[in-house]
């Protein structure tokens, strides 16, 4: 009888923490910077002013993304830590009830009561807090909050995304800047949508349509505002 060999498996959920921050950061970097550039260019501003505005958008946006992600994910981490502290206290005070609670979870998932109790025995003997964190609270190493990782990822990917439309300003003729910026930005967003879908193991078309639609809407809005106020001024 042949023995079954274990094989390593990689699941997309293991990348959910940094992938969310990376896609969000890059998307914001592309959309916000390109939209600002298109809006300023549509107002009739010169290249030097457009470059300054774009560079300011890159720096301010990267710092804002980093701060926002750190604060947001830190709040999630605080909530997780509070739940773990509460669970640790309950395990110390009422271990029998906590054992029954864990067994009941397994019964609801399809195990018979005897097997559920045996599984709860084994898991609580090894690491009771980890078992309750994973199966009762839904907290695991894979999806746990990491504020610094999220902040650095968002800042780096925002800057990378913002650089793409900003570099176009330096190489594209001023007269055709708006049209080329819009077309290139939509292409960048489509590539980002495809890359994010690939990294997450999803189908690309839905992601591409989603990011390009909202990007086109933002570009149209800022171009319209820039042209309106540029004409007024």
UniProtKB/TrEMBL annotation:
Coiled-coil region: none
Entries under InterPro entries matching the protein: Ccc1_fam (IPR008217)
Pfam families for this protein: VIT1
Keyword Transmembrane helix found: yes
The organism's place on the tree of life at top rank: Bacteria
UniProt key word Transmembrane helix: yes
Record localization: Endomembrane system
Primary location class: membrane
CDD domains with a match to the protein in the record: Nodulin-21_like_1
Record key words, sorted: Membrane, Transmembrane, Transmembrane helix
GO CC terms of this entry: endomembrane system
Annotated TM spans: 21-42, 48-67, 150-172, 178-199, 211-230
GO biological process: intracellular manganese ion homeostasis
Membrane topology value: Multi-pass membrane protein
GO molecular function: manganese ion transmembrane transporter activity
Protein name: VIT family protein
């Amino acid at each position: 009888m042949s023995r079954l060999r274990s094989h390593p498996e990689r699941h997309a959920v293991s990348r959910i923490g940094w992938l969310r921050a990376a896609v969000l950061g890059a998307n914001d970097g592309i959309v916000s910077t390109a939209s600002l550039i298109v809006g300023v260019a549509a107002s009739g501003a010169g290249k030097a002013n457009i470059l300054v505005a774009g560079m300011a958008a890159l720096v301010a946006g990267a710092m804002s993304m980093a701060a926002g992600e750190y604060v947001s994910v830190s709040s999630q981490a605080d909530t997780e830590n509070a739940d773990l502290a509460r669970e640790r206290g309950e395990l110390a005070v009422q271990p029998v009830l906590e054992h029954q609670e864990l067994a009941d979870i397994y019964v609801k998932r399809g195990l018979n009561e005897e097997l559920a109790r045996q599984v709860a025995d084994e898991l609580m003997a090894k690491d009771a807090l980890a078992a309750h964190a994973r199966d009762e609270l839904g907290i695991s190493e894979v999806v746990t909050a990491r504020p610094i990782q999220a902040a650095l990822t968002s800042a780096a990917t925002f800057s990378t995304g913002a650089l793409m439309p900003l570099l176009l300003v330096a190489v594209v003729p001023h007269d055709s800047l708006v049209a080329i910026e819009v077309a290139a930005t939509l292409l960048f967003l489509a590539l980002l949508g495809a890359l994010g879908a690939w990294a997450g193991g999803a189908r690309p078309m839905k992601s591409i349509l989603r990011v390009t639609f909202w990007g086109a809407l933002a570009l149209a809005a800022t171009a319209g505002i820039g042209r309106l106020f540029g004409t007024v001024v």
